[in-house]
Amino acid sequence: MTVEQLRAGMRTVTAVLLGVLLVALTAVTVVDVVGRYVFNSPLSGGTELTELLVMGVVFAGLPAITLDDGHITADLFTQLFSSRGKEIQLFFARVLSAVALAFGGWQLWEHGARLAGYNQTTLYLKIPMGPVAQFAAVICVVSAAMVLAMAVLRVRRAE
């Protein structure tokens, strides 16, 4: 399997997953707003569901963004570099991204462990928060491994 095939597959899987999450987010919002203003009865736990769905959207898209080199960058001086200089800059940018993602993953894992230790749940729906944070941590670490592999293997920048 080539990198381009992997990117295409990841785009498809991510698009479907994000589509489902966004439809669910829209449904929760519509039901909550209609319930609140038409029936004077908002969706129970609607705010918690909205927060969790937004978190799901952010972290579900992270591996695909990583694979596509889609992170926000500032290319102020890149046009001044030779092609070799651009390769070196891309390598270090990817390594820095891997370090940042790994650090974020580690911190999320630790936070999730603390939340689990306190048996922290959402207020209304009683959804355990520790596993939610640790799921986000795993996604960060997987993304860190992906971007580090892309740096080491010198994978071309996505077009």
Automatic annotation (TrEMBL):
GO molecular function, one term: transmembrane transporter activity
GO biological process: C4-dicarboxylate transport
Subcellular compartments: Cell inner membrane
Transmembrane segments: 12-37, 49-67, 88-109, 129-153
Domain Tripartite ATP-independent periplasmic transporters DctQ component residue range list: 25-156
Source domain of life: Bacteria
Keyword Repressor: no
Membrane topology of the entry: Multi-pass membrane protein
Keyword check for Transmembrane helix: yes
Principal subcellular localisation of the protein: membrane
Protein purpose: Part of the tripartite ATP-independent periplasmic (TRAP) transport system.
Subunit structure: The complex comprises the extracytoplasmic solute receptor protein and the two transmembrane proteins.
Family affiliation: Belongs to the TRAP transporter small permease family.
Protein's UniProt name: TRAP transporter small permease protein
Species name: Paracoccus saliphilus
